[in-house]
Specification:
elongated; single chain; disordered C terminus; alpha/beta; disordered N terminus
Length: about 270
Amino acid sequence: MLQGARDGERARRHARGHAVRPGSTLGIASIVTYLHGCQMVGYKRLTEVCQGLFGLTISQGVIANVLARVGKTIAEPAERIAEEVRASEAIASDETSARVKGKTWWQWTFGCATAAAFVIAATRGKCVPTAFLAGVKPKLWLSDRLPAQCKHAEEHQFCLAHLIRDAQYAIDHGDTIFAPGFKALLKDACAVGRRWPNLADATIAAHRRRLERELERCSRASRPMPRAASFATRGHTACGCPGLSTAATSSSCSSSDATLSRPTTRASGR
């Protein structure tokens, strides 16, 4: 414990010497921006962190000014990232609530294979992705079934992770007919998607046919249950999605899982 205390004091001295040396605010600005933007540390706690770690007395007003300056600095790189996402043929999107000045706003994510752009907006409406796209219409859009996420691209696939969560919700509420088989189907699709880069076109097509047959089997089994049947139909036809209308956009499955109904030119083995 004594050695740990010594190490902690040594780390604090190192931070004071490198992060807040006279004439340079780059270090503390970077730390404050990271803690506030990535770790969601509020202004009041940030003042305590700066005092406790760096011996720096800083007000909430100063923190606000630092974040405003950093915001101007990163505006241009952020726009380059957004342009990279817009240039992609396939875009994945999701949204979640975020607190802004004590009110509920929405944090939107727009991502592709190489970049991810974030937008904070006061609304969860369709106007947010429409404004982000700025007239661009990608070939494929990956998202959940929120209406605001629909009809932004030539084709739309639903997020496997969201559908798996919906299936689990149905299982937890007593569905033993449709949801268990549907969840197994989705997890099977995720497994195929993870192997997609090494699969030939014919192999992908075979997997798609097999999964579509399994989806039809699940749908037939659910017909005596109107709610489950409706669930199956939404997963197959909503937003005009072709074939097996599923894709992954969140941490539980990678975006490559969408390829079961995407054209591909890869033919590197089976």
